[in-house]
Amino acid sequence: xxxxxxxxxxxxxxxxxxxxxxxxxxxxxxxxxxxxxxxxxxxxxxxxxxxxxxxxxxxxxxxxxxxxxxxxxxxxxxxxxxxxxxxxxxxxxxxxxxxxxxxxxxxxxxxxxxxxxxxxxxxxxxxxxxxxxxxxxxxxxxxxxxxxxxxxxxxxxxxxxxxxxxxxxxxxxxxxxxxxxxxxxxxxxxxxxxxxxxxxxxxxxxxxxxxxxxxxxxxxxxxxxxxxxxxxxxxxxxxxxxxxxxxxxxxxxxxxxxxxxxxxxxxxxxxxxxxxxxxxxxxxxxxxxxxxxxxxxxxxxxxxxx
Length: 306
Ligand SMILES: NC(=O)c1ccc[n+]([C@@H]2O[C@H](COP(=O)([O-])OP(=O)(O)OC[C@H]3O[C@@H](n4cnc5c(N)ncnc54)[C@H](O)[C@@H]3O)[C@@H](O)[C@H]2O)c1
What we know:
Oligomer: single chain
Order of helices and strands: EHEEHEHHEHEEHEEEHEEHEHH
CATH topology of the largest domain: Rossmann fold
CATH superfamily of the largest domain: NAD(P)-binding Rossmann-like Domain
Radius of gyration: 19 Å
Number of domains: 2
Strand content: 15-25%
Bound molecules: nicotinamide-adenine-dinucleotide
Shape: globular
Distance between the termini: 36 Å
């Protein structure tokens, strides 16, 4: 297939590009390299440097006539979304609509949106949280992802756009940027490997659902071909708290560095774990990599590149 991958120089997008290229697809990456890196670009994929929210992106889609689009390009910094919701929405919502507007005239076999499971349910009382739990996001970032999903729903309803939204849990693994605001695994691993104590915001008892990148790539490939359109949680269903994560990483690194505790981040989710029954049933997908195994691979990668 001819496939456009936005955000293909980033963490998740670049792994998906590699998987698509190795399966013989003809891939073009659109990325502005704001958080993505040239070194992540697959040499067998075409690369266009540009912003997804521009008219140029819409024209690119019209010219390329891709059969499928993966939209990973996003403003993903939750704190930035709180202070600059207009910029967040411009990239995340208008960016998606640019792609849709470009694709509608020629038709598209599949659009896959990278949505969020960690920031969309807004303090859910039910854990693991299923897709039909009311989504009332706490952050503008979560709102922009929910709005994107709803746009896709409306286009799907009108029969014009076969779209799948994947609500990712906390994805971790090689190529995740340890310098970014999110990505606690990458950040902690880097600190421990440098002999620095990890910094935990709040009491560390907040939980997250950590899913390994290879499992996420398999979910993306399943979303490309499934006949069952709609919204899917992609996680493990397992809650791990941040204190426990720090303990596991210490064990794997062979260090005993005690965390430093900093003030909690306002508006942060207390607990998060995603129910994955729908993905199991309709995508034939389930996670295969256990947390300890995925953490070990992530540490190996960080050691190899340092
Ligand atoms: N990593 C996670 O745990 C996680 C969880 C839930 C959802 N997501 C979503 O998955 C997607 C990928 O996240 P990631 O962790 O790989 O982040 P990332 O920052 O590594 O990748 C995002 C990519 O998009 C590019 N980009 C950003 N703004 C752009 C713009 N305006 N135009 C074109 N390109 C732009 C960046 O340069 C980068 O290459 C995002 O949509 C994110 O919201 C990630």
